[in-house]
Automatic annotation (TrEMBL):
PROSITE patterns: HOTDOG_ACOT. Keywords: Hydrolase. One of its GO terms (molecular function) is long-chain fatty acyl-CoA hydrolase activity. This is Acyl-CoA thioesterase. It comes from Paenimyroides tangerinum. Residues 7-119 form the HotDog ACOT-type domain.
């Protein structure tokens, strides 16, 4: 399988926040943002693997900034690292200042997808080669995040999480 770069999977969704998508403070409902990010990440995973990809875990979501009604929201998803059958997707969320058009970072998230065949069985994905400094640093930290996710899911014994142990030794 031919290696790919993060820019091969880049997926950008731009949309507006409508009244039916807000909480009582008139900010974008968290679950709505999660769904939009899942959609963008799913497309990025598919662009990298050219396979059906299912969400395996949501590793991190930081709701750092509320997103008011009427905001123009841009979600950018890119594959940050691949393993054998799983892919880590990094998602950055921006809102646009109405008057200046300036992009303000609102949130970020990290999802893990698994490529599967038509029967739902995991299949191998192409390797990824990070290019920019940011892509390289996200790539380098991804194994640590994968191990943490597997430990929290009860799929990896903490004693086997070598990358996590290395942080404390
Ligand atoms: C787009 C959508 O919303 S899809 C709907 C929501 N998602 C789903 O319905 C998925 C339901 N879950 C599943 O189908 C399965 O649990 C799968 C396909 C995710 C994993 O299947 P498993 O039988 O656990 O397969 P297996 O143990 O071989 O793991 C496959 C890969 O997933 C990784 N993985 C599994 N669980 C996790 C987790 N919680 N966190 C990180 N990685 C995980 C494994 O480490 C492995 O990665 P690797 O091959 O790259 O090393």
């Amino acid at each position: 399988m031919q290696a790919k770069t993060p820019s091969d999977s880049i997926t950008i969704l731009t949309d507006m926040v409508l009244p039916g998508e807000t909480n009582p403070l008139n900010n974008l409902f968290g679950g709505e943002l999660l769904a939009r990010m899942d959609r963008a990440a799913s497309i990025a995973a598919r662009r990298h693997s050219r396979r059906i990809c299912v969400t395996a875990s949501v590793n991190n979501v930081a709701f750092n900034k509320s997103i008011p009604l009427g905001s123009v929201v841009t979600i950018e998803a890119k594959v940050s690292r691949t393993f054998r059958t799983s892919l880590e997707i990094f998602i950055d969320v921006w809102i646009e200042d109405r008057e200046s058009g300036e992009k303000i970072k609102a949130n970020e998230a990290i999802y893990t997808f698994v490529a599967v065949d038509e029967t739902g069985r995991p299949v191998e994905v192409p390797v990824i080669i990070p290019e920019t400094e940011l892509e390289k640093s996200r790539y380098d930290a991804a194994l640590r995040r994968k191990q943490l996710s597997l430990v929290l899911a009860g799929k990896l014994a903490p004693s086997e999480a070598t990358e996590l142990k290395a942080l404390f030794i």
